[in-house]
Amino acid sequence: MALNTLKTETRGRVAIITLNRPDALNALNSELLGELRETMAKFGDDEKIGAIVLTGSEKAFAAGADIKEMQPLDYVGAYMNDFFEGWSAVANTRKPVIAAVSGYALGGGCELAMMCDIIIASDTAKFGQPEITLGVIPGMGGTQRLTRAIGKAKAMDLCLTGRFMEAEEAERSGLVARVVAADDLMATAIKAAEKIAGFSLPVAMMVKESVNRADEMTLAEGLRFERRLFHSLFATEDQKEGMGAFVEKRKAQFKHR
Ligand SMILES: CC(C)(O)CC(=O)SCCNC(=O)CCNC(=O)[C@H](O)C(C)(C)COP(=O)(O)OP(=O)(O)OC[C@H]1O[C@@H](n2cnc3c(N)ncnc32)[C@H](O)[C@@H]1OP(=O)(O)O
């Protein structure tokens, strides 16, 4: 498939997807969504890939959904097409995804970063949900995922004022896992992805699934869900290998089985 709005490459077991609409600060349009869905599905199905890094440009991870594409929408059109529902496929990617964020991550850009599992930001990153300035509210999860990530006080502040939050505040608030110098962003994100991809893939996928359940379940349900997944891992070769390697004082060689 020829890609117009993305670039992709693989490095060992890590896939790197770069948003590539430089003239529009990587604004998220339908074409980009289609290509991102296909690419995520392709890497999701590829047994040789253990983790994905999603990034943008130095100036913008993504400056939001494409306002020029949205502007002519009417209510019936938006409702009948369930506009933005397509992003659920990206959020539901089962392999670990790291967002490497530099520059603007606004509106849908911030929401896309929050669909990923770990956000690593450069010290130039700016996060925000400025939809209120356009006469709308966030529509790709901003009011929900941001509130879960940073709490009601900060989420209300960002969504109601539309102000941008610098990387340091984003890390302090719990949105961002790590902040690094801009020059180190990709190396740091790829190194973290390589680390994850070196572990057992089914185990990494179960970690992701179980942590994500914390947002959806009561504590009692979540603890039971986690424990059942834990029990199931004793049926895998990788549990035998991981624990065997520890006991034998050697490095584990996981087979993803
Ligand atoms: C998914 C939802 C429902 O939650 C909704 C959204 O995501 S709504 C969009 C939220 N995002 C925004 O409101 C940010 C819009 N962009 C900006 O405010 C500024 O571009 C900026 C502050 C990020 C950067 O400003 P500046 O450096 O001055 O660059 P510009 O000249 O403004 O932009 C360059 C170029 O990119 C186009 N652009 C930027 N953002 C978008 C966008 N979200 N959609 C479409 N196009 C965008 C901008 O129009 C410029 O292009 P030209 O007009 O020069 O062709």
Molecular structure report:
With 257 residues, the protein is an alpha/beta fold. The chain has two domains: 192 residues, 2-enoyl-CoA Hydratase, Chain A, domain 1 (Alpha-Beta Complex); 49 residues, Lyase 2-enoyl-coa Hydratase, Chain  A, domain 2 (Orthogonal Bundle). 45% of the residues lie in helices and 16% in strands. The chain has twelve helices and ten strands. The strands form two sheets. A six-stranded mixed sheet has the order 1-2-3-5-7-10, with helices on both faces. The chain has a four-stranded mixed sheet with strand order 4-6-8-9. A hairpin with a 2-residue loop joins strand 1 and strand 2. Helix 5 packs across helix 6 and helix 6 packs across helix 7. The two termini are 30 Å apart. The model has no long low-confidence stretch (mean pLDDT 97). The site of ligand LXKY6Z5U has 22 residues, from helix 2, strand 6 and helix 5.
Q: Give me the count of strands.
A: 10
Q: Which residue ranges are poorly predicted, with pLDDT under 50 across at least 5 consecutive positions?
A: none
| Strand ordering within the main sheet | 1-2-3-5-7-10
The shape is globular
Fraction of residues in helices?
A: 40-55%
Oligomer: single chain
The CATH topology of the largest domain corresponds to 2-enoyl-CoA Hydratase, Chain A, domain 1
Mean pLDDT: 97
Keywords:
single chain; 257 residues; alpha/beta; 2-enoyl-CoA Hydratase, Chain A, domain 1; Lyase 2-enoyl-coa Hydratase, Chain  A, domain 2; 2 domains; six-stranded mixed β-sheet; four-stranded mixed β-sheet; 12 helices; 10 strands; 45% helix; 16% strand; globular; binds ligand LXKY6Z5U
